[in-house]
Amino acid sequence: MIVVKKEKTGKWVVTRFVKEHNHPLVVTPANSRRSVLLSQTPDEKDVKIRELTAELQRERKRSATIQEQLDMFVKDMEEHSSHLSRNIDDIVRNVREIESKRVVSSHS
Question: Mind listing the pLDDT tens digit for each residue in 27-41?
Fold first, then answer.
């Protein structure tokens, strides 16, 4: 056990120190994941690292596939939008031509 106090100068000073303990010196981690990692042997940790690395690689491949599908979808949407714009432009042009022919024929 250690007892410390802060002096007026701002320094911390040990005021009492007991070397023997009547309890085991065990640090309990605040994070349960950390406690699992601390309780594992080095071999178990290596296995866990390999498992997590493999999972990460699978998720990266899956993410790349999804990104590729999304890119293709966006490209298709842009092409469709462009096609619709051309069709609308053609319709507007045709309507204007018809209207101008009506105006010309009504003046004749």
Answer: 555 555 666 656 678
